[in-house]
Write a structure and sequence with these properties.
By secondary structure, the chain is mainly β. The chain is built from no helices and 23 strands.
């Protein structure tokens, strides 16, 4: 076994924690891995892996109403420790796995076409159906990658047609959250000239109504490359998106960057967090004092470290 890069962590209803990621078993094979962490001791109490003969990656995990879990990621395998419900649709496919409370796989589904399709986030809805977002370069997309949204029933069967948002260049979703109005907010990046006017890559926020239609989509950024990895709705019904900004001429010098908008997507603040090291913001939560806790990675002297930043409600620290 080689690497074990975690991609998501949640606290479960029993006070423990679940980590989701991938484990590389060889240069040509990886599996999705889930580890349960004892909340009082911080030790791994159980771990599970799911995959086939090729690459399988886990991007996010969410606890479901029945105490189980839904995982989103991507899949290029056709069999193995959990056999996919369909043969591979393309090189990589959007992939979801439903686990019961004991970590046993109940079902899995994949979606996509002949191109590259990936899952970033899956959310269970009140009726126990699911909405999954990610990126796609298959039929229906307009560019090299488009934001890709799929709705399924409670057992992973697709409902209706997939939804694509984007233009002629890359448009990628990295995170999706439920919003207080019953809809969703999606964050990622766009490189499409129709979607952004600042050059390079920009933060891309999409507000989806509760019926699945588009409320608004807006880019945010500068002449450098800005990529968002997470977004939240605050108690004030504002949106904070976190990620990084990076000069294309110096690709190894990212800085933590955030954008704040009102409920309509109008920008009301943005900031580069000038740290003593380079870094990227990967996820964030709102704290009880209406501030932010930002988690990410810092880069210093050819090493990578965890990065944790606490800000006030204005994003200052």
């Amino acid at each position: 076994m080689h690497q074990y890069p975690p991609r998501d962590i949640i606290q479960t209803k029993d006070g423990n924690f679940i980590i989701c990621g991938s484990i590389f078993r060889s240069a040509t094979n990886s599996d999705i891995v889930v580890a349960k962490i004892n909340g009082s001791e911080g030790k791994v109490s159980k771990s599970y892996s799911f995959g086939g003969e090729n690459f399988d990656f886990g991007s996010s995990i969410m606890q479901t109403q029945d105490g189980g879990f839904i995982i989103a990621g991507l899949n290029s395998s056709s069999g193995g420790r959990i056999r996919a419900t369909t043969d591979p649709l393309g090189g990589y496919d959007m992939y979801i796995i439903k686990l019961n409370a004991d970590g046993v796989a109940e079902w899995d589904s994949k979606f996509g076409g002949a191109g590259y399709d990936s899952g970033a986030t899956a959310i269970e809805l009140p009726d126990k159906s699911y909405i999954v977002c990610g990126a796609s370069s298959s039929i229906g997309s307009k560019g090299s990658n488009d934001v890709f949204i799929v709705r399924t029933n409670s057992i992973g069967q697709r409902i209706g047609n997939p939804i694509y948002y984007g233009d002629t260049e890359e448009d990628v979703a990295h995170a999706m959250k439920s919003t207080s109005d019953g809809g969703f907010i999606i964050s990622g990046f766009t490189a499409s000239t129709k979607e952004q006017t600042n050059g390079g890559k920009d933060f891309f926020l999409l507000k989806i109504r509760n019926d699945g239609s588009l409320g608004w989509k807006k880019p945010f950024g500068s002449t450098d490359d800005e990529i968002s990895f997470d977004v939240i709705e605050t108690t004030k019904k504002e949106f904070f998106a976190i990620g990084s900004t990076e000069n294309g001429n110096n690709p190894n010098s990212p800085q933590v960057y955030y954008v704040k908008t009102n409920a309509k997507g109008d920008e009301i603040g943005k900031k580069v967090l000038n740290l003593q090291t380079f870094g990227r913001g990967a996820s964030l939560i709102e704290t009880p004092d209406c501030g932010l806790m930002i988690f990410g990675t810092s880069f210093n002297n050819n090493s990578k470290d965890f990065l944790l930043i606490k800000t006030d409600e204005n994003g200052d620290f």
